[in-house]
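$ ./design --mode recover --in tokens.txt
reading tokens...
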């Protein structure tokens, strides 16, 4: 039987709150180590991640480990990192802005830091190679439980047609702790499945 999504959100959020700063940093580093060694990361050029809130696993360690510059050479590929921005107009969706060591930040309407950007810094979602995706819960089928806003589902709806993944890129990788896995999530028609999940135990690939 599927658990109520609100109950799942509450339970997992409480578990995250119980992590000490040291535990969060250690587990986040373990997760980053797994992903950074995968071809999904080493072959990607345009990479989107997120700034953690409420003790989420921290993917910014991936950028910091590559000298915190806008363009990083890894396996002969120059990498550019992007952060999501809540679009100000139209449906609830995300824009992605390039970040570098001099990027400034401001808080959006949810209190989440976003980069201050110029239009030239934006990249269309379908031009990204890898998207490191925040989540509250996930199951072994790649179903993702977020905070309920639907931003990632709307932004990457182009990846699926008739519930079939028709576009391989960008690769959507959920970034989470082991305890965020649940037995089964009831997916809706508009939910966009993940291509994989990385936790402190390793990478679960689904495609």
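writing sequence...
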């Amino acid at each position: 039987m599927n658990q109520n999504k609100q109950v799942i959100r509450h339970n997992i959020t409480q578990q995250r709150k119980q992590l000490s700063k040291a535990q969060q940093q250690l587990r986040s580093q373990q997760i980053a180590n797994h992903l950074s060694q995968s071809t999904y990361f080493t072959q990607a050029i345009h990479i989107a991640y997120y700034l953690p809130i409420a003790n989420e696993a921290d993917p910014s360690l991936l950028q910091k480990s590559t000298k915190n510059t806008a363009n990083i050479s890894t396996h002969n590929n120059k990498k550019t990192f992007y952060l999501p921005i809540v679009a100000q107009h139209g449906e609830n969706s995300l824009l992605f802005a390039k970040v570098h060591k001099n990027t400034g930040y401001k808080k959006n309407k949810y209190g989440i830091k976003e980069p201050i950007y110029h239009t030239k810094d934006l990249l269309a979602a379908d031009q990204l190679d890898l998207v490191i995706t925040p989540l509250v819960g996930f199951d072994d089928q790649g179903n993702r439980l977020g905070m309920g806003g639907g931003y990632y589902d709307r932004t990457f709806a182009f990846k699926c047609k008739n519930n079939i993944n028709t576009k391989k890129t960008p690769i959507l990788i959920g970034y989470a702790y082991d305890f965020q896995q649940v037995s089964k999530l009831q997916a809706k028609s508009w939910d966009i499945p993940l291509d994989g999940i990385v936790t402190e135990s390793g990478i679960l690939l689904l495609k």
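exit 0
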